[in-house]
Amino acid sequence: MRVHPFNILFIFTIFVGNNRQLRQIFCSACDLVKRTHNTATRAVIATVRVGRNPLDVTLTPDGARASVANAGSNSVSVINTGTNTIKATVRVGASPRKVAITTNGARAYVTNAGAKSVSAIDTATNTATATVPVGANPVDISITPDGARAYATNFGSNSVSVIDTGTNAVTATATVGVNPVNAAIF
After folding, report:
1. Considering only CA atoms, which of 70, 38, 67 is closest in space to residue 53?
2. Which uninterrupted H or E stretch holds 32?
3. Any bridge partners for residue 133, and if so which?
4. pLDDT per residue as tens digits for the range 16-40
5. What's the pTM?
6. What distance in Å separates the CA atoms of residue 154 and residue 146, rounded to the nearest whole number?
């Protein structure tokens, strides 16, 4: 069976800092070239087959799991980073683009660009527990450090949706400039 190159997650080993500490970088095939130019060794240490068109990879705070948004499969692949194997595949809305994980690692939030929604995932059970309607074409999401709110940028409706993570409901929608892409909380 032939594996399409955009269904694979590559894991690289790099050395960073003055003490040359070992780190791993996870990247999908679609941005492989961009990321390999930043590595010291460019060595692939593992290849993990995930869903179609993986667009984003996010690690849990403890680094034990990586969540991959698979836009072409409407799913999130959860990878055990210790064994570099798929732990679970979670079905979410159409065209997932970005995954954000709470600082305690208990929940993940996924923007579903093709469904005008955000999926909430319980990371202990690897199940989608809620679907939150937001604006058109949500492409990015960030979570506050206390985990109380998530901010989703809605590219197609020029807005940002504020989600209460306790109730998984939108509490506010702010109109912003044209086609917001990124959300960051400092």
Report:
1. 70
2. helix 32-36
3. 117
4. 444 444 445 555 544 332 232 234 5
5. 0.81
6. 23
The number of beta carbons lying within 10 Å of the beta carbon of residue 93 is 20
Residue 93, classed as helix, strand or coil, is: coil
CA distance linking residue 7 with residue 175, whole number of Å: 35
Count how many domains the chain has. 1
- Which tokens is 110 given? 């996924």
Domain that holds residue 78: 5-175
Residue 132 CB contacts under 8 Å (≥ 6 apart), including other chains:
117, 118, 119, 120, 161, 163, 168, 169, 170
Cα gap 102→159, rounded to integer Å: 22
Total residue length of the chain: 186
Whole-number percent of the chain with pLDDT over 90 = 56
Chain centre to alpha carbon of residue 105? 13
At 156, which CATH number? 2.130.10.10
Cα gap 109→128, rounded to integer Å: 9
| Chain position carrying tokens 């034990």 | 64
Tell me, yes or no, whether 39 lies in a domain: yes
